[in-house]
Amino acid sequence: MRRMRSSYQLKEGTRPGGADGPGGKYDGAFSADYEDVAGRGDLDECHGRSGVTPEFPGGTHYYCVTEEFPFVARMWGGTPDRSFMKGGPGMGPPGGRRGPPRGF
Questions:
Q1: How many helices (H) does the chain have, and how many strands (E)?
Q2: What letter would DSSP give residue 54?
Q3: Rounded to an integer, what is the distance from CA 70 to the centroid of its chain?
Q4: How many CA atoms lie less than 13 Å away from 33 in the CB half-sphere?
Q5: Domain range summary for the chain, segments of one domain joined by +
Q6: CA dist., res. 75 & res. 47, Å (int)
Q7: pLDDT tens digit string along 19-42?
């Protein structure tokens, strides 16, 4: 096991102001203050990487938690297996929801 390094870094300069943004210096107060720089760290823009794990000795794509932004994945890449649908395969639209929750 080894520590993974994010490929995100704080942007330089100032944020757009007025109707286009909050203005001010990029300081990490907002997620949009960061940008992914391919190859800067160990992880891709989705905070994952491909490799061998104890569960998948033939290799797999997996996501990591880090000590630096974005800490946990904020997006996913690829196409999820149908088994991830709520209720199992063939049980409705992606995400498994069929309308609003009860009592809504």
A1: 0, 4
A2: S
A3: 8
A4: 15
A5: 1-15+23-74
A6: 8
A7: 999 999 999 999 999 999 999 999
